[in-house]
Every structure is written in C-alpha cells, then in structure tokens.
Write a structure and sequence with these properties.
The protein has 9 helices and 17 strands. With 324 residues, it is an alpha+beta fold. A hairpin with a 2-residue loop joins strand 3 (60-68) and strand 4.
C-alpha cells in the first residue's frame, strides 16, 4: 500500500507501509531512527536480525514511511496484535517540519488500520505535549487522569468489550501482550499501585516501562531474572498481570523482590491462579492501598501488613507495605 500526496509547499511526499525491511534499507531506517535511544533501537534490531523468530514473535510490525526523491523524511511505527496497537516514533526530519508530513502519515496509517479491521490504537505524547492537537484531529482522545496518554477506538464501547471473555489462559509475558497490557494499566480502577516493579502507579501508559524492562526477563542469569505472568483471553488480550521483580524503591538500595498483581475486575477470581504460578520466598514485599481489591488475594498468599504510611502517595493515599 502506497500513495503520493502534495505537501504544503507543493513538493511530493511518497508514503508507503513496510511490513518487512526492504533489502538494503535496514541501515537507512535505523539511522533515521537514531534519535531513539536504547532499548528501542535494540527492539528494532531484533526484528531486523530475526524477524518473527526473535523476541518480538507474535507482534505485527509496520513502518509507515514518507520520502521525497528517495530520501526518508518522516516515519510512524506501529506494533499490533489482533487489532490492538501502539503507535509511536512519530518523527519528521527537522528540515521538513511544518509542511504536513506527520499529518499525511497519520491519515495514511489510520486508513490502513481501519481497512484491516483495526480496533484500538494507543500512544504516548512523551515529554512534549505540543502534538496533542494533531492527534486529536486524527481521532485520539485523552485518557482521564493520565496526562500524555491517548487512545483511539473504533467505537466508544470497544475497549470495555475487549476485557470480556468466559475463558482465559495463563501465559508468560510475551511481546504480543504489549498493546493490551498498556490498555489494562490505563483503565479506571480502584488500585493505585498497579506495578511497583515498573513504577506504574495509577493510570499510566506502560509502553516505555515494559520495553525498558524486557531485558530483565530474558537476558539476565536465571537467578536474577524478573518474571511476569499474565492471564489472556482467547483473543490474546491481557486481562491480568502478576510480576516478581527487583524492588526499585528506597533509592534502589533494596535487595528484596516485589510482587505485583493487577487485574480487570471481571477476572478477579481467575487472577488467583496467577499467584499460584509463583514461588514467593520469605521477605518478598508488595505495595498496596487500603481500597485495593488485590489485598484479599495477597493475604491468602501469606502477605501481612508491615507498615502503613499515611499521605505517602501523590494523591494523598495511604501506602500499605506488605511482607510475606
């Protein structure tokens, strides 16, 4: 799929979607994405080297690129699984900005996504809120209580319907869960401590935290690895998350492991099965708040309150420190 459009200055922009890396263009694409630091470049390199056999198996990868006279000047990247996607790396070469490159790329991407039956796309604004208006023009809406996160859904009720299903299965975290895990962590929910190991408190886009943390799941020696298990529906949607990670709190001095559990309310009972997948040694900690629905499950797993710190969290919530 490709098209040619005119920019504001009349020059031609050629837009195409790349499902695979064209022979001889991997270097050019990686150089164009050089503004992205690690681990994102490592993420791309894995696909360039191994394709679907790499760590990114199960995730559909697309580059929407804009070029003028053969030179790359703009890019959008999406990572999708069964109609759920993350849109990122929206970049226009500095010399070509304010000519409508990103606008044309977003329009092209949206058309292609809808034509293929795409359902939900999520993105993060990062530290620069200025493109927000552009994304709104292309159907993205702000996520309540989560500045910088935006979601575009085909219908208003679609996101809610994704988190339904009579049967679920257990799985270790895989890249295919990345888009739906982001949606899970963004949902309105009484739990404030969603994943302390990833520094996800309250609604937060977990795109970056998950990407940065993946090496700790696979590349470290077994005794030092973190672990994430999820519940997924038949459609592959992540509806519950449990993890055992190095505790990043207390200035990074803690040698303990932190256990996190977060689930959609419809899957509270099934979430108990996730806990059973873990061997939780004595001294494992968990963080929570008094109103968190996971507290009962943690108590059944042997966690007891170690401390209660009032007004400790950013919204004035009481932080519960639990220990097994």
């Amino acid at each position: 799929m490709r098209e040619r459009v005119a920019l504001r200055d009349g020059r031609e922009l050629k837009i195409e979607v790349l499902r695979t890396v064209p022979e001889g263009r991997a270097t050019d694409i990686l150089e164009f994405l050089g503004h992205k630091g690690r681990p994102y470049l490592r993420h791309f390199q894995d696909y360039f080297d191994h394709g679907s056999r790499g760590a990114i198996e199960g995730l559909e990868w697309r580059f929407y690129v804009g070029s003028h006279e053969g030179k790359l000047i703009g890019n959008i990247c999406t990572w999708e699984y069964r109609g759920l996607g993350i849109l990122g790396h929206v970049f226009t070469h500095p010399a070509w900005r304010r000519r409508g490159v990103a606008n044309h790329l977003l329009e092209f991407q949206d058309s292609d996504f809808r034509m293929r039956g795409g359902r939900v796309m999520v993105l993060g604004l990062g530290k620069d809120p200025r493109p927000r208006r552009l994304y709104q023009l292309h159907g993205f809406e702000d996520v309540p209580d989560c500045p910088g996160a935006m979601v575009r859904a085909r219908t208003e009720s679609l996101v809610d319907r994704l988190f339904r299903g009579k049967s679920v299965r257990l799985s270790a975290l895989r890249w295919r869960h990345w888009p739906s895990a982001c949606l899970l962590f963004l949902m309105a929910h009484p739990a404030y401590v969603r994943c302390a190991g990833l520094d996800v408190y309250g609604p937060r886009l977990a795109e970056g935290p998950i990407v940065h943390h993946f090496p700790a799941l696979w590349s470290l020696p077994p005794r030092y690895r973190d672990r994430v298990e999820v519940l997924e529906t038949r459609a592959g949607t992540c509806v519950a998350w449990a993890s055992q990670m190095r505790d990043p709190n207390w200035g990074g001095t803690s040698k303990r492991r932190v256990f996190d559990l977060f689930f959609h309310p419809r899957f509270r009972k099934q979430a108990e099965r996730l806990v059973e997948r873990f061997v939780l040694p004595r001294g494992t900690v968990a963080y929570s708040t008094p109103e968190d629905p996971k507290n009962e499950i943690l108590e059944e797993a042997g966690f007891r309150e170690l401390a209660s710190l009032k007004n400790c969290l950013s919204g004035g919530e009481t932080l519960l420190i639990l220990e097994r």
